[in-house]
Amino acid sequence: MICPKCKCQMNAIETDSFSALKCSGCAGIWFRDGSHELAKTIKGVREIDSNSDEAKATYNELRDIECPECHKKTTKMVDRTQLHIEFEACTYCKGVFFDSGEFKDLTEFTFVERIKQAVTTLKSNL
Ligand SMILES: [Zn+2]
Ligand SMILES: [Zn+2]
Questions:
Q1: Ligand that comes closest to the CA of residue 68
Q2: Do residues 81 and 113 make contact, with C-beta atoms less than 8 angstroms apart?
Q3: What is the pTM of this model?
């Protein structure tokens, strides 16, 4: 598959739990069929993201892309828990594209949120 942002080859990330591809050029990650929702809950999953600031600076602004699988225009989305994370989603195949570092950002928030929720639950039980 070809990266919708930098046109480099995207390589499959080998995993049993979700289906994703990572770009060999800009290090963006494409999650098939909304599988980022599942992927972000998996321990250690952030390691798949390389967090290249250089690539992020170049490609984060590039929003007008086509879905690499169905070649329809993607829709700009904002993560509902982290409003600064913007990504591209295909409304046809439910695929999602994260720029380098964005997915890591998403998983880190989830981890912190989990701790906050645990603390809140603990306090309310006292
Ligand atoms: Zn790319
Ligand atoms: Zn699509």
A1: 2
A2: yes
A3: 0.83
Inter-residue contact 36 to 88 (CB < 8 Å): no
Please list the pLDDT of the chain residue by residue as tens digits (126 residues).
Answer: 999 999 999 999 988 889 999 999 999 999 999 999 999 989 888 889 987 777 777 777 777 899 999 999 999 999 988 888 999 999 999 999 999 999 998 888 777 777 887 888 888 887
With CA atoms as reference, report the closest residue to 88 among 118, 109, 110, 67. Answer: 67
Find the 32 Cα to ligand 2 centroid distance in Å: 9
CA 93 from centroid of its chain's CA atoms: 15
